[in-house]
Amino acid sequence: MPTPAVPDARTVTLRVEGMECAACSARVARVLSRLDGVAEVGVNLATERATVHARSDLSDRQLAEVIERAGFRASTEAPSPAEVAGAKDADRDRQRRRLWWAVGLTLPIWALDMVPMAIPAVHDWLMSTLGSQPIRWILLALGTAVQLGPGRHFIRTGWAALRSGAPSMDTLVLIGTSAAYLYSVVATLVPTVLPAGADHVYFEAA
Fold it and tell me: Is the pLDDT of residue 187 over 80?
C-alpha cells in the first residue's frame, strides 16, 4: 500500500525498548498513528525499530515522548543487530531476577497462608506461637514487597497500556493482583469496614 501523501514529510527511525510481544508492537504503532501529522508507521518487534513517516515539523523528541507515554523506552538511535541482541539478553536477565525475587518473597506467604489450611497442626502451632494479627502483618510486609519490587514492572507497563487506551496482559495482571492486594490491606488494617466474616486476606494472589 503506498504511503499517504504528507506535505513536507520525512521518515524517522526510532529505537523502542521494552516491547515483549506482538501486542506491544501493535500498541506502539497505534499510539504513533493517532498523532496528528503521522501518515504511516511500521514497528518491527525483532529489531526494536519503529519507522515513522510524518510531517517534518514533528520532532524526534515528540515521537519518542508518545512512545514513552505508552510505557516503552524510545530514542532516535537506531540499534544495531548486536545492540538488539544485547538488550534482549539484558531484559531476560532482569526478568529472571524479578522471577527469583518474586519466588523468594511469595514462598513465605504461601507457607504462612496456605499450608495451615491444609495441615491443621501447622495452623494450631502458628496461632499459639505468633497469633492471627502478627501473621497478617508479616503477610502485609511480604505482599507489599512483592507488589513494589518484582511486581512494579506490571504496575508501570499495565497502567501505561491502560492510560494509552490499549489494555494489555500486563493490565490484566495489574488489575487482578492489585484487587487482591488492596482488599487484603483493608482486611488487615481496617477489618471493621468489611462485612462480618469477610475480612479474609489474599496476599498469596497478589
Answer: yes
Q: For residue 172, give Cα distances in angstroms to 16, 30, 102, 155, 159.
A: 23, 19, 18, 10, 10
For the chain, give the longest Cα–Cα distance.
77
Q: What is the SS3 assignment for the chain?
A: CCCCCCCCEEEEEEEEECCCCHHHHHHHHHHHHCCCCEEEEEEECCCCEEEEEEECCCCHHHHHHHHHHCCCEEECCCCCHHHHHHHHHHHHHHHHHHHHHHHHHHHHHHHHHCHHHHCHHHHHHHHHHCCHHHHHHHHHHHHHHHHHCCCHHHHHHHHHHHHCCCCCHHHHHHHHHHHHHHHHHHHHHCHHHCCCCCCCCCHHHC
Give per-residue pLDDT as tens, 59-109: 888 999 999 888 888 887 766 677 767 777 887 888 899 899 999 999 999
